[in-house]
Design a protein that fits this description.
heterodimer, A: 301 residues, Rossmann fold, 9 strands, 34% helix, globular, B: 328 residues, five-stranded mixed β-sheet, 12 helices
Chain lengths: 301, 328
């Protein structure tokens, strides 16, 4: 699997598969973080198949029971990061700050052969490691990311450490745009700029929505690109549903600076009926009455 | 009594020379936290994180994940009250070896309520995986970093700075989860911590002269709180136990002792000498007196527990002097 070379068409196919699987979960259980899958499917598929340089998965092929919380007597539990391969100086690291995307990450891991497709059956099942919101032990998660704004600093600290050690691998952090309202995000960007972390890439799924509605109706965020540049980062914007554009944006040269890739996306991409609900798409519920409409889309995917 | 100056400054450099993984992180208060000289000695191991404690904390978690040992330096109050979520979710939950070196604990700063960490022990005792040390003198400042290193997990240190007395022999370093016995006796048990230990030593001298048998123990490990020697002393004391601390009256040493008494079903009365609420900005000695965390109030608590009037005055207490361990 790891030696597989993916064409752009393969990557698009994986993105479609991720979207379809999450839609299936949403129909089956009456709701899911579906819009996040719709907005990020191409970004996450591109990261796992085209952008990240990861070693072979070192995680269990199947889902495992919850391995316990970390503590002095439990430090050898299986880390979620094992699914991104063992740490190595030349390999990349991938942090997921937007932990509500856990289901999307699990589906992506399955699509690229890093975890069993059957493991997805344990998603959000009591007592298993495939939780709805991930923590240290959840496949694909380096850390416990549920409190927004913390992960980007942890990822930057990791990048700083790797830079001091002379490692060549990069550190990527996937973020939502709502969490850019957290003050800590900007504390982090200014520090990443100060320490010239050119091994650090923040990829933002800028879907323009948050729990209470459209971002512009909650808080002033724009102009994001200018803000990131003012805080010492390089910043490029791209269409987050255009796989080649995402790849090109992530490969932007950014000497002496961290890079921010703002992927502009829409949370109803691929599932048209969601558009009439926009921007109230944080957690999409599908009622019994609506199921046939969504089932039809699922069947045609 | 010998007064030592800037003990942590020298010790941090000595410690970092031994352990190459050690980094110092500062939030613009390094020069107030005795790491100015560290910065000059090890410029590449001194990371300025700006006036941004939240990012500093999570960033340190990233460094620790890569094998570094970050020692965060700023005022204690900014290392728990301001950043509790970062401390818990970035460091404590994953059990990472990040050391929070918190300066000017309690009322040791004239900086006023925003600068005074009065419930750090209370708050952090509720944080799983966290170890809490509260140093009492120069000897403990010299020993605490080695203990923090050995913990290999999150550690919070209530650190003292500048002029600090040497109350304990330099040859007897601080021990993990073990109280220091300063006086042996059976009538009253006094458990003291931080700057209050010096006060308790003054009071103990005067109380002994009145014929009381005092068990005085200095406590420097506040979490875990499972020291069997404290439990034994609680079982033995005749009139009860008095805790005296540089901390709010709920959550700190007094609460830890209460839990021990209750859990073990010990019939032992407790008198708490602690800060009754938020303090304000003034000198240390003024605030200790004002809020009653001093030798005189300790004597009054002994009178209360024993039912005896001891006729000890402020003047009696002022006459008490300590042995100078370095100069003898």
């Amino acid at each position: 699997m790891e030696s597989t070379t993916y064409t752009l068409a393969d990557t698009q196919k994986i993105a479609n598969q991720i979207r379809k699987q999450i839609l299936g979960i949403a129909i089956q259980s009456g709701g899911c973080y579906l819009a996040q899958a719709c907005s990020s499917a191409e970004i996450i598929a591109a990261l796992y198949t085209q952008i990240l340089n990861l070693g072979p998965s070192a995680g269990e092929w199947d889902a495992i029971p919850f391995p316990g919380v970390p503590g002095p007597d439990n430090m050898d539990y299986q880390r979620g990061s094992a699914y991104h391969g063992l740490p190595a100086p030349d390999k990349d690291r991938f942090f997921v700050s937007c932990c509500h995307y856990a289901s999307v990450i699990y589906c992506a891991l399955a699509a690229v052969g890093r975890i069993s497709p059957a493991a997805l059956e344990k998603f959000n099942v009591d007592g298993w490691n495939m939780e709805m919101i991930g923590a240290e032990h959840s496949p694909g998660f380096e850390n416990t990311a549920g409190s927004l704004g913390l992960t980007v600093s942890i990822a930057a600290g990791t990048a700083h450490a790797r830079k001091m050690k002379g490692e060549t691998g990069l550190v990527y952090c996937l973020m939502g745009d709502g969490e850019l309202q957290e003050g800590q995000t900007w504390e982090c960007v200014q520090a990443a700029g100060y320490y010239r972390l050119d091994n650090f890439v923040m990829v933002v799924d800028a879907n323009g929505q948050q729990v209470e509605g459209a971002i512009e109706d909650q808080m002033t965020e724009e102009p994001l690109a200018e803000r990131f540049r003012a805080f010492g980062a390089a910043c490029v914007t791209c269409d987050g549903h255009d796989i080649q554009a995402v790849i090109d944006a992530c490969r932007t040269e950014h000497p002496g600076k961290p890079l921010v890739v703002l992927c502009r996306t829409k949370g109803y991409t691929g599932v048209p009926p969601l558009e009439k609900r926009w921007p109230f798409l944080h957690f999409v519920r599908i009622s019994e009455a609506e199921k046939p409409e969504y089932q039809k889309i699922y069947d045609e995917m | 009594m010998k007064i030592e100056v800037n003990t942590h400054e020298k010790n941090m450099i000595r410690f970092a020379a031994k352990h190459l993984e050690v980094l110092v992180l500062s939030a613009d208060l390094g020069s107030s936290c005795e790491v100015k000289q560290f910065r000059a000695t090890y410029p590449d191991r001194y990371l300025t994180m700006g006036i941004a404690e939240q990012n500093m904390c999570s960033w340190a978690a990233g460094l620790a994940r890569e094998g570094y040992r970050p020692f965060l330096h700023t005022f204690a109050v900014f290392l728990y009250r301001r950043i509790l979520d970062q401390l818990e979710m970035s460091v404590a939950y994953p059990n990472l070896p990040v050391v929070f070196v918190g300066f000017v604990p309690g009322i040791t700063t004239p900086g006023g309520v925003t600068h005074q960490s009065i419930n750090d022990v209370g708050v952090l005792r509720t944080v799983p995986n966290m170890t809490i040390f509260d140093v009492g003198d120069a000897t403990e400042i010299e020993g605490v970093l080695d203990l923090a290193w050995a913990c290999n997990g999150p550690v919070f240190i209530r650190m003292l700075r500048k002029e600090v007395p040497r109350l304990f022999p330099a040859s007897e370093p601080m021990q993990f989860n073990r109280a220091r016995v300063l006086s042996q006796g059976d009538d009253i048990l006094i458990l003291s911590s931080s700057i209050c230990t010096e006060e308790a030593m003054r009071a103990t001298q005067a109380l002994k002269e009145k014929g009381l048998s005092i068990q005085h123990m200095h406590v420097s490990t506040l979490k875990p709180f499972t020291d069997p020697t404290i439990l034994e002393a609680l079982k033995r004391t005749k009139y009860g136990v008095i805790t005296i601390e540089n901390q709010y009256e709920i959550g700190g040493l007094s609460s830890a002792v209460s839990e021990l008494i209750a859990e073990n079903g010990i019939g032992c009365r407790l008198r708490k000498i602690a800060l009754p609420g938020y303090p304000h900005g003034a000198s240390k000695m003024y605030l200790m007196k004002k809020y009653g965390i001093d030798a005189m109030h300790l004597v009054q608590a002994v009178e209360d527990l024993t039912g005896k009037s001891l006729a000890i005055t402020e003047a009696d207490l002022a006459e008490e002097r300590f042995v100078d361990f370095l100069e003898v």
